[in-house]
Amino acid sequence: MSPLLAISSSLLSFRADVPAPESDAPPELTEKVDTVLGLVAWAGTAAGVAGVLVTGAMMAISVKRGESSEHMSRLGMVLGGCILVATAGPLVSFVFD
């Protein structure tokens, strides 16, 4: 085992001592919450795709007109939001499971 892997596994071993409480939510409620979270995740993904498309269109129009602007920072913000939306579920499940 590499030293970096050994150090990181020893740092993450504290997570095993945290108790995991049982879920007491009724199944009907969990189904509705899952539906709402699925819709929100879908909307976040759609907004990310729309943001990338709009930013790309603005970049193309600016280049054609010969204007320069800060489109790369806007694209970075959109892609950062896409990464946040895509990793929200796995991050929460890593912390709470």
Main attributes of the structure:
single chain, mainly alpha, flat
Q: Structural class given helices, strands, pairing?
A: mainly alpha
Total beta strand runs: 0
The share of residues in extended strands comes to under 5%
Mean pLDDT: 81
- The dominant shape is flat
Model regions low in confidence, pLDDT < 50 over at least 5 residues: none
Number of helices: 3
Sheet of most strands: none
In whole angstroms, the N-to-C terminal distance is 26 Å
Order of helices and strands: HHH
Indicate the radius of gyration in whole angstroms: 21 Å
Q: How much helicity do the residues have? A: over 70%
Describe the overall structure:
- The chain is flat and about 60 Å long.
- The protein has 3 helices and no strands.
- The mean pLDDT is 81.
- Helix content is 77%, strand content 0%.
Q: How do the strands and helices of this protein lay out in sequence?
A:
Layout: H1 3-12, H2 27-65, H3 71-96
Task: Summarize this entry quickly.
The chain has 97 residues and is mainly α. 77% of the residues lie in helices and 0% in strands. It has helices spanning 3-12, 27-65, 71-96.
